[in-house]
Structures are given as C-alpha cells and as structure tokens.
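Lab notebook page, bench 4
Experiment: in silico fold of construct C2
Operator: M.H.
Input chain length: 258 residues
Purpose: comparison with the prior construct
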Amino acid sequence: MDEQRRLHRIRPLPPFGSYPLIAKKTLVPHSAENGVLPVRTFTFAYPSDVSLSFEPAHHLKLVRPGPYKPRSYTPTSDAYREGSFDLTIKIYPGGNSEWLDNVSIGDRVTMIGPLPLPFKAKVYKPGPFVVVVALGIGITLGYIGAKRELDRNGFVTLVYSIRRKEEAIFGDELDELKQKYPDRFEIKMIASREHVEGWQHGRLTEDLMHQFIPDAPKDDIRFLVVGTKQMMKSIWSILRGMGYNQAEHALIRKRFKS
C-alpha cells in the first residue's frame, strides 16, 4: 500500500482505550544502597490504522483498576511511530507505577488520551533559543521537547540535573541528537549527590543558570522546565529573579489555570 493510501486509512487514537503491554526494559536498576528507584520503559501495541501523533505538552493518563486517581505520563517514543508507543516511568513503591510494573506481558492497560483535550489546550510559544531544564525523571518530557525544537531548527541547551550518574537515562538518544545537530545542541549535566568528571556538581542555582542561558536577546529565549511540581516552582522562581517571567518565556504553558 502506498503512503497516500496508508495515511488515508489512519484514524486518531480513541480518547479511551486499552492497550496490550508487549515489552518492558529496565533503564535504571533499583539500588537500595544509594536510594535509587528503578526506571523502566514500557512498550504498548496499538492498531496499525491508528495514529498516536502527539505534541510534547500531551500525555496519556494511565487508569489503574479500583479507586485510584489516573496518573499522567508523556510518551517517549517517536510521535509518529507505527504500531506501538513507549512510556518511560520511575517506579515508586505503592503507586500506580508499581502496579504497572507488575502487569504481565500481554495484559491490557487502560489509558485516556492523548491529552490535553481542546478545552484544556496549552499555549506553545516558540523562540529561536530554547533552554530545556530536565529535573530527574522530567527528562522523559525534556528529551521529547528538545528533539522537537531541534527538528524545527531551534538552538537548544539541555540542562539535565539528577542526583547520581547511575540515574541518567536516554544517553544514546541524546548522543544521537548531538551528532545530528552538533552546532545547535548543547548538553549540560549536573549531579547533586556526587562528583562526576565533566559534570557540574550541586544544585541548580542562579549562578549556574547564568552559565547555561545562551548569549542572546531575552525576547528570543524560551524555557521548558520539567520535573516535579516543587522542582519546577523552584526553577521558575530563579528564572523570574533573572528577568524571565513564565508568561513570556515558557515554551509551553497552560492557557487556563486549572
């Protein structure tokens, strides 16, 4: 079947469905000694006549059976990959992620999305220079966001902050982006709990952020800050003190307050 006929058959992913788990891969093993939680990539199948195209602001809500609140996860596979998609998740004890970790290959998992739906649309405000601040497992969205901006000819600085080197993921994927866009992509690694050769050490501070922000007019710079709510709040507090308010400089922001 030629490409035009194939695309004609494609229909959007339904907003509510169940998908079989077909693979599971460990990216970061559990280390009780260092307090490192495991991170795994879960691969789910979906019909070949369905499209899972999504933007970095979009996510899927995983529905755990029982009286549990659905949890949101950003797909980490290519937005237009056919037949399957990946969710890369840190496994927290007792949470939805631990439940998913115990799902057997072949079992189905119910999900809602991709979200946000139109009534919760987000504003995308591109700029020629983008600083992606990925805090911990926030790299799942940070990687997708960096890749999209590079594909759109932007200059991207990825600031990837974790506690220990062993918690780093997507190393091969980031190296591939660096090789593909050597003049437009920089990676700055930070470890807060140990010294790593070639990395910055400590927490993200205003002094460090000054080192990472490109020498460009402020109006041309955007930020994608991803991590826990508390982490993101802390970084935006630093950025506001440097003259970068969220309304004007966030690459992606909510249209309405929830």
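Observations: The first helix runs from residue 3 to 9. The domain at 3-116 is CATH 2.40.30.10 (Elongation Factor Tu (Ef-tu); domain 3).
Next step: discuss at group meeting.
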